[in-house]
Amino acid sequence: MATSAQAGNYPANFTESVVATGLQSPSGMVVAADGRVFIGDQKGRVWVVVNDSMRSTPVLNIQAKVDYNVERGMQGIVLDPDFAVNGFIYAFYTALKPSTHNRLSRFTVVNNLADTAETILLDLPGLPTRGSFACQNVSYCTNTTNAVWHMGGGLIFGNDGKLYLGVGEHEVTSMSQSMTSMFGKVLRLNKDGSIPSDNPFYNTATGDYRAIYATGLRNPYTFGIQRSTGRIYINDVGDVTWEEVDTLTAGGNYGWGTCEGNYATASTSAACSITGQVKPLFAYQHGITLTSRGNCAVGGDFTSNFRAQDNGKYFFADFNNTASTTAQNGWIKSVNPNTGGDTTVFATGYSNITNLRFNPSGSAMYVLTRGYNTGTIDTVGTSNKIGRVYKLTYNLATSIQNSAAYHPVQTIGSLLVLDARSALKVPQFATSVRLVTLSGRVLWETRGLVPGSQFALPSHLTGGVARAVWQ
Predict the structure, then answer these.
(1) Domain ranges of the chain
(2) How far apart are CA 450 and CA 241, in angstroms?
(3) SS3 45
(4) Residue 127 zone, left/alpha/beta (φ > 0; ψ -120 to 50; rest)
(5) What is the pLDDT of residues 425-471, one digit of tens each?
């Protein structure tokens, strides 16, 4: 079950709990419509959290197939839009055979277990010869001639039903601007791995290069999507000067190789020389000034069920705004997706954040932390199994001990009739509640309730029925 062990600093009226721990090099995370949380790690394992408790057996384990040195390994996972029916989960990982390369595959989950038999959707070319990116004291890095950094890993389904994949430039900067390389790109595929004929370069490129949807990226590690508009956001990890959050545009060139952020590479003033560069939605400099700087842009999601000032804003995180290996300096911010302004610090004090996602109701945020620096997988031992998932729940229930404006919630058997004018009484044993539909989908949840008190249901919960799960 979830445990309380405050790690971060966050606003009032939020409750933090740990719903998964003992993770080793966690990288990807996705939340199912039924509330289950799936977590991928670099070694090729996928874990699941059910009702705030992590199962001890991984859903999927393909470690024998995976090269997980430095930044290689399983970097991204995503669920099929029809996951509740077909159980499909997609993974982007570094395959060992026939030679080391990155691969996109599909697996099938049944009863929280997946068959290791895979459907290969895309095999990328072999890892290129290493570029000039520093080894950063990682021993394996100095003993190989092939790329170990910047694999990418962003995976998301758009509202169009297409699968978007972020591929890093594999340490070779020139790849990002080349239309004869899959590296440094966002790729767009059909669910079966075929290439959509309406891709922007479909008629001018050949072969797998027709899958290219956007160019000029360095390390598009994670994506986010605003479902109400269909806009996809890229968290592109920068080099030595800038981190950026980009809005995905068909055929867009984001400038990497020549430009970083809004400027020329490694500059804070020289103009970008690429004509038509798609400017970042938001860019911030490297450094340790918490309110404005960081090192690696990650995560990304939207909610409509937090505080009023949070709703509709894009939440993203930074891996660690210091060079220290385990310093608790990862932060979470929000930004206005329409203007790139109104940027607000939401939480601080987390160790090496790699992803963040909201639950289906939008009332809780899951924060995936690695607990130690990237690129250390080759020396990881038992003492490094400190990756965690923190759950931040907004306690938006309104206490109404005596108010004529509300009436006791109506019931049909064990089901609650949802009405925004209803008041729900908290049992003496409970401090939290989750409202669940007949199909098992979590509509809403809240924590920090006072046993024996009453609270008003949120105004957006009107119509239909649900079951209350008290804890």
Answers:
(1) 14-394, 398-470
(2) 48
(3) strand
(4) beta
(5) 888 888 888 888 888 878 878 777 778 887 777 766 777 888 888 88
